[in-house]
Amino acid sequence: MTSDSTHSSGARHLPTMIALTILAALLTFGSIRFDHFASVGTFAGLFHEYSFVGIAALGTTLVILSGGIDLSVGAVVACTSVIIASLVERHGVHPLPASAIAVALGAGFGAAMGGLIERYRLPAFLVTLAGMFVARSFAFWIEPHSISVHHPAYAWASMSAVLRVGELTIPLRTMIFLGAAALTMVIAHATPFGRYVYAIGGNETGARRMSLPVGATRIGTYALAGGCSALAGAVFTLYKQAGDPASAVGLELEVIAAAVIGGILLSGGVGTIAGTIIGVLILGTIRLLIDFQGTFNAAWTSIATGVLLLLFVGLQEIIVRFERLRARAARAASGRG
Amino acid sequence: MNASAMHSWHRWRSAIAWPLVAIVMLLLVNAAFDWTRTGTFAGAFQRGGFLSIVMIDGRPTGAIMDTLSRGATVALLAIGMALVIAGRGIDLSIGTVMAITGVTAAAVVDRGAPGWLAIPAALAAALVCGAWNGFLVTIGRLQPFVATLILMVAGRGIAQALADGQILTFRDPVIEFLSGGRVPWLPVPVPLLVAMLAALVTFIATRRTAAGLLLEAVGSNPGAARLAGIRERLLVFVTYVASALCAGLAGLIECARVRSADPSRLGLSLELAGIFAVVAGGASLAGGRFVLGGAIAGAYLLQTMTTTMYARDVSSDVAPLPIACVILAVCLLGSPRFRSDLRAIVKRGKQ
Question: What ipTM does the predicted assembly reach?
Answer without folding.
Answer: 0.79
